[in-house]
Amino acid sequence: MFISPETVVFAVRALIRVGTAARDAYEQHVRDSPIAIANLSMPPFDSDDLLLAFFVLDDTRNARITTGDLKDLLGSDKKPKSPEARQALKAAALEEMSREPATQGEYAARRLSEEGGAMLLAQWSDKGNKPPSPVTRIALAFADVALEYIAGNPGILGVGGNGEKLIGALAGNLGDLLPDADNPTQWDTKASTYFFAERSLTIVLHAGLRTIDQNPNLVVSQERYQTLLGNVLKPLVERFDTDPNVRPSLSQFRDLLIGPMAEAALSTLQADPRAFLGSKFDPNAAVGAVTIALLDVFTKDGLQNTASTEGLIKLYRAALGVAAARPELFIKGKDLQTEAARNMLKDVTAALQQAPVPLNEKGAIDLSVAALDAISGNLPRLIKLDEGKPWERLAGNLLSDVLTGFKTGLSQGGVDDALAQLFTPDEAFRLINIFLVQAAETPGMITGGGSSTELKGLAGTFAGAIAAAVAAKPNDAGIAAHLLTAADWEAIAATVATEAARNPARLFKLGKDPKDQLLAKVISLILGAAADGFRANGRTGGTLLFGATLRETLQIALRAASGNAARADAHLADLGKLMALLDLLMKDNPGRIGAEAWLFLFKRYTVTVLDEGLPPDLTQAKLLGELKS
Amino acid sequence: MTILAKIAVRLWILPLLLAGAACTAHTLSTLKSESDQLQTTLGICQGDNKANADSALCLTSLDAPLLDLARKARDAAPQAADERTRIGFLATSALSGWSSLTPEGAQLADDVAADGRNRCGQADPKSTFVPLRDCNLLELEPGFARHSLAIIFLTEIERMPTPLDPGIVASLNDQASSYIANTWDFLESKRAELEARHFLHPVVAEYLDKQRTIIFCTAARFAVWESKVEGPLLPTLRADIKSKMTDPPHSKKVQDCNPNMFAPN
User: Fold this and answer.
1) Which of A197-201, A276-280, A442-446, B46-50 has the lowest mean pLDDT?
2) Closest to A29 in 3D by CA, of A190, A199, A176, A234
3) Which of A3, A50, A51, B180 lies 20 to 30 Å (CA to CA) from residue A253?
4) Which residues from B are below 8 Å from A86, CB to CB?
């Protein structure tokens, strides 16, 4: 999708502004919080000096102690001469005081004394103009972001529209995600959580608005949005709050993934709205389990080292697909089955270690996604057939079996990189995916408790046949494998997988060496004949066994052999004779025998030849007669 | 990778910027928390439930941490990204400075408060929420700092042998003659000015009310010393105190300095 420069500028500006808003809001909170302030210090004032002050501050009283009736009670240092003098001065003072009314100052002084301590000074008075609270400021910053988006996408915030619901949903999550704005302790101790949560929310807001913009027909209630996005965001924020050790990883996770994850969650909801409505189990909660699982594989299992961001999001989306299909697997009672979800993701990514080239790079994550997709569509049957074994292992086992089979087969075939020589990564992926899909759809081919020897053997035999075709041997320049396109190989793989599923223990039998398997022998025979013919004749018309014709020949032979494996193995050499006979017929009758006629006759006689051997009466004349009829 | 993710990656510096901002805010938060703790302790030390000797020891023990806090807040102020946060640092520094009861602290308070007052004055209330309390404290700081210097002096001469050295007596006269003008007069006039501008926080006004008694008592303490040294200022000082602090509505009495001192046995 084309992204306009304006969109980029908007995104950058919005991110920066929200970051600034968060910083400003926190600073505002700190500087506006009340401060304790002690009273000014009292001067040192002992009781004798206080007594003296009582007389000194008044002209009349001062006259009493300097020249009047009390002058002999004080010494030269203006202290009472004796305890008796002190008592007399005090009595005189009390007598004077009794004649005076109590003052406001006296009460104030008592209060000052009784309260002690320090008083709290707020920054702002209740009256008058003062700044909005930090939470209000965050809300304003959110609105600002949304409004700027709307400027380029008018109508997204229509009344009752999805944009309005989305913002309402995010606002509904603020309370759960941000520290309590009225609790200074939380603001002081959870400042970093506040920043983290706030930025996560804003990233999700962007992602949500974009998803909604791209899916205008989405019909979802605000509550659904709120729960769904809450389940994407809460695990992240809670983990950040409780586990300081993983904060750097979580920040990376947030910046890279939380937006696409929110998009994935919303898209899943959009793709299958019924899955999120009226279910006995809440798929929203399952989303939380998947989110936590992805967090774990990212922060604890180091998955980001082996998968690209796009790959991780694909994986998350695929896992969400499983959760949407069978939410009950992710929830037991009130508990989220996060470990099961984590194991599921770990297994499907661990299996990638067996991925052959060219699928051993970061793009290999597509195979994990494919395994999850293959499983999610067949989960109820697979779980039932697997008799309660760990469901979360199914996808991992499936992928592991197929990849191990391929790797082993290629190695035994002598060309480890045979797939890389023939296919692009996408083509190789599609080839392997055929086995993943077929195995997931075939009862008993995968198990939750352990690996499947059948599946590994099948994949290995097919891969071995490919490798053998690629390998250069004394009498084979290795050109046979190149007479087929990637699409041809995919079609052949589909035939092999289908026939192996329909007719177990025919094309592939347990215990046999891969090269001795009927599957390998059929492919080897036909590709060998094709190679010989092409080497001898090229495109002079002396052979037709390449491309689509070669593909159909292989498919016909594989289907026939699969249906009658025991006798086919015995008469396989006769199949080569049939092909030689047809080639000769074509050479002798170049105007009459083309690819279509060649295939017609091959198909007409393959089953018979594999069952009984080449009919002794099969002549060119008879074959031409078949064409006439 | 989505465009937002790409932007987030390229803006990897943003978390650092935020963290930097958080550090600034956290520093203010930490310093304010430290200030609250010291001010609360100071208030407890000032309580009259302690013997004077204990109280003096208690107060003295706070001098160094308060001065240290004043320096830290002063030094942190330039790092603040927001002008109002910077003012918050300066107010915290000034408060700690004058509370430290050290000459250096008082000087530091004067310096940072001058800076802060300038910043408060440049902020336009029409376009900015000027931090009311912090600016009030900075405006009032000269009066508080002069009071602190007076307390420092009174505490020092309290420990000196009598009769006092003539030079000290001269200093006493200087201090006694200027105390009321520098504290009471200054604070009251500044208060009136702020009120006229509708720029006085009610809680700050309440705080000022409570300090009147302390200022009265300090003036009374100077009067007692003038009496003891038979200095020339006593009549003037007495008249000054009487004209300002013993008339309604601010009437104060010596017994306000320690109500329990004159309680009947």
Assistant:
1) A276-280
2) A190
3) A3
4) none
Task: Say what the pLDDT of residue A149 is.
Answer: 67
Min mean pLDDT across A190-204, A370-384, B90-104, B179-193 is at: A190-204
CA B78/CA A257 separation, integer angstroms:
37
Contact status, residue B218 vs residue B150, Cβ threshold 8 Å: yes
- Residue among A465, A354, A476 at smallest CA distance from A413: A465
Contacts of B214 in chain A (CB under 8 A): 39-42, 112
State which residue of chain B sits closest to A105, comparing Cα positions. B252
- Determine the Cα–Cα distance for residues B178 and B232; give it in Å rounded to an integer: 14
SS3 A442: coil
| pLDDT digit string, tens, across residues A448-457 | 555 578 888 8
Pairwise CA distance, residues B7 & A430, whole Å: 32
User: Locate tokens 């109820």: which residue?
Assistant: A380
Asked whether the whole model's pTM tops 0.90, one would answer no
Measured between alpha carbons, how far is A158 from A155 in angstroms, rounded to an integer? 5
Identify the pLDDT of residue B17: 33
Q: What contacts B82, CB < 8 A, 6 or more positions away?
A: A24, A27, A31
The helix/strand/coil state of B38 is: helix
| Nearest one of A542, A444, A438 to A499, comparing CA atoms | A438
* A16, A20, A42, best to mutate vs chain B, most B CBs in 10 Å: A42
ipTM score assigned to the predicted complex: 0.88
Which pLDDT value is given to residue A449?
52
**How many interchain CB pairs under 8 A, A with B?**
304
Q: Is A478 left (phi over 0), alpha (psi -120 to 50) or beta?
A: left
Handedness of CA A375, A380, A384, A388 (dihedral sign): positive
Decide if A376 contacts A391 (C-beta within 8 A): no
d(CA A417, CA A410): 7
- Cβ atoms within 10 Å of A116's Cβ, excluding its own: 16
Which residues lie below 8 Å from residue A303, measured CB to CB, with a gap of 6+? A297, A312, A345, A349
pLDDT at B18 over 50: no
Please state, in angstroms and as integers, the Cα–Cα distance from residue A464 to each residue in A292, A467, A565, following that order. Answer: 40, 5, 19
- Residue A576 corresponds to which amino acid? G
- So what's the pLDDT on residue B8? 32
Looking at per-residue confidence, does B110 or A444 come out higher? B110
What residues in B contact A38, CB-CB < 8 Å? 39-40, 42-43, 46, 99
Q: How many Å apart are CA A90 and CA A281, to the nearest integer? A: 85
Confidence class for position A142, pLDDT limits 50, 70, 90: low
H-run or E-run covering A489: helix A486-502
A226 Cβ neighbours under 8 A, 6+ residues apart: A168, A169, A170, A172, A173
Q: Computed over its alpha carbons, how large is the radius of gyration of chain A?
A: 42
- The Cα–Cα gap between A446 and A444 comes to 5
User: What average pLDDT score do residues A96-101 get?
Assistant: 74
The CA distance from A174 to A139, in Å, is 9
Higher pLDDT, A521 or A276: A521
**Encoding tokens for residue B3?**
């465009």
Per CB-CB distance under 8 Å, the chain A contacts of B28 are: 27, 30-31
**Distance separating alpha carbons of residues B95 and A588, to the nearest angstrom:** 112
Query: What is the residue-averaged pLDDT of chain A?
Result: 79
Q: Residue A245 and residue B179: Cα distance in Å, rounded?
A: 57
